[in-house]
Write a structure and sequence with these properties.
Blueprint: H1 3-13, E1 26-29, E2 38-44, H2 47-55, E3 60-65, H3 80-90, E4 94-97, H4 100-103, H5 109-117, E5 120-128, E6 132-140, H6 144-153, E7 167-176, E8 191-204, H7 208-217, E9 226-230, E10 235-250, H8 252-263, E11 269-270, E12 278-287, H9 292-297, E13 302-306, E14 321-324, H10 327-331, H11 334-345, E15 350-353
Parallel strand pairs: 2-3, 2-15, 3-4, 12-13, 13-14
Antiparallel strand pairs: 1-4, 5-10, 6-8, 6-9, 7-8, 10-12, 11-14
């Protein structure tokens, strides 16, 4: 397979449009026409990981964190980022990053986190905004069901736990084609009126191209009338963090010890214990101080994340237990998920889980 054939599989796993605007995801290094011989999946594409890829004959590295995050004015090998990039280019190894695209996915980083802790009844903590669009189009009455089905087939009409959602209303459409037209209904230069159905469906923004392609492929009109609107609705199944419940409430100390054991962290920094049981738990893999307010608003008993600063622990306000388990530890099983997904989709070459420990933090 060529690299350009692998990328759609990665985007099937997690659309890059799910990523946050500040992020740098997708193909960072590599030629789209490169013939891929093996994929190494890692957390951070450090120089040691590139060495591992060379040793294991993998010429593509799929990493969670982007090794290139901000702009680079020169590549001279003066730091760990530049050294990794130089070695990848010299050895014709592609690097592809996923990061917040998988953070925001309903089956991604935070779902994996929830599963690790045994949480049930999970939902997104901070749903993604400005990501839902609505398509409005018009079709002859006898073609309306065909139009809806074609749009549904491409993912339109999904709302939370429901699919095949649409709204239709009937009316009269009018048109007149010019001398260059070739109307399916009526004839050129003649005014026509048709009993029509207005079809309305919503969809996630990244599906727009596929949905319009399906619409244009239908043969009921030579020209399709349609409108697309950006909606203010929040996308409930995509976004940062998750919240769920333990099957049974736990003592605070027992809960934190369970978190420590299941995430393999070397230590947990936490706010004051409140002397109450833990039942509802919010999580956010990676740096999560920005979501403390959301965890409080949804009445979580505990919020598990990383990279909390001194003064941010005060935001617990004696209402919630805040726990910082470490950045790497909060995302550590993500690369396993990526490896398992790609291994099921790709059978022509090996997809290998990196054995290099890229966690820069050590504990005594």
């Amino acid at each position: 397979m060529k690299l350009k054939e692998v990328i759609p599989i990665l985007e099937e796993m997690t659309p890059l449009s799910y990523a946050e605007g500040f992020d740098n995801v997708g193909l960072l290094v590599g030629d789209y026409d490169l013939d891929i011989t093996g994929i190494l999946v890692c957390h951070d594409a450090l120089e040691a990981v590139i060495d591992e890829a060379i040793e294991k004959k993998c010429n593509m590295v799929v990493c969670f964190h982007p090794i290139i995050f901000s702009g680079m004015k020169r590549i001279t090998g003066k730091n760990y980022v530049e050294r990794a990039v130089i070695k990848a280019i010299k050895n014709n190894i592609a690097i592809y990053a996923i990061h917040t695209a998988l953070d925001n996915h309903q089956e991604g980083v935070n779902k994996i986190f929830c599963n690790t802790l045994g949480l049930t009844n999970t939902r997104i903590l901070i749903p993604k905004e400005s990501y839902i669009q609505k398509l409005v189009t018009y079709a002859p009455k006898n073609k309306a069901n065909d139009v809806r089905q074609a749009l549904f087939n491409e993912g339109a009409g999904a709302i939370g736990n429901y699919d095949l959602c649409s709204f239709t209303s009937e009316g009269t459409g009018s048109f007149r084609g010019n001398e260059s037209s070739n109307p399916v209904i009526g004839t050129a230069l003649n005014y026509e009126e048709v009993e029509e159905v207005k079809v309305e469906v919503i969809f996630e923004k990244h599906l727009q191209g596929k949905i319009l392609k399906a619409l244009f492929a239908l043969d009921y009109y030579e020209e399709k009338a349609y409108e697309i609107y950006n909606l203010e609705n929040k996308l409930q199944n995509v976004g940062m963090g998750m919240i769920g419940e333990l099957e049974e409430a736990m003592d605070e100390i027992d809960f934190l010890q369970m978190v420590k054991a299941k995430t393999g962290t070397g230590g947990i920094r936490h706010s004051a214990l409140l002397g109450k049981e833990i039942k509802r738990v919010a999580v956010l893999g990676g740096s999560g101080s920005f979501a403390i307010g959301a965890a409080l608003a949804q009445k979580a008993d505990a919020y598990i994340t990383s990279d909390l600063k001194y003064h941010e622990f005060y935001q617990a306000e004696n209402q919630i237990v805040l726990a910082d388990i470490g950045h790497f530890e909060s995302e550590r099983y993500t690369k396993n998920y990526i490896t398992e997904f790609l291994s099921k989709k790709i059978t022509t070459f090996a997809v290998i889980l990196s054995t290099v420990n890229t966690n820069p933090v050590n504990y005594l």
